Amino acid sequence: MAKCDICGKGVSFGIKVSHSHRRSNKMWKPNIMKVKAVVNGTHKTVHVCTRCLRSGKVQRAV
Hints:
InterPro entries: Bacterial_rp_bL28, Ribosomal_bL28, Ribosomal_bL28/bL31-like_sf, Ribosomal_bL28_bact-type, Ribosomal_bL28_sf
Number of strands: 4
Protein name: Large ribosomal subunit protein bL28
Shape: rod-shaped
Oligomer: single chain
Distance between the termini: 27 Å
Family: Belongs to the bacterial ribosomal protein bL28 family.
Organism: Candidatus Ornithomonoglobus merdipullorum
Mean pLDDT: 94
Strand order of the largest sheet: 1-2
Number of helices: 1
């Protein structure tokens, strides 16, 4: 799985518990996009989560 190149957000694991209390493993995946961005003045493709895109931590290449 890909990680966000800006904040390092990745997959987190836990246990899903049903109504009858049966337990099974669960994986939460972040919303990560492959984006062309400006990094150190050059256009580069990076993996970025949508929270970093929305907050303006990444400037998209035009």
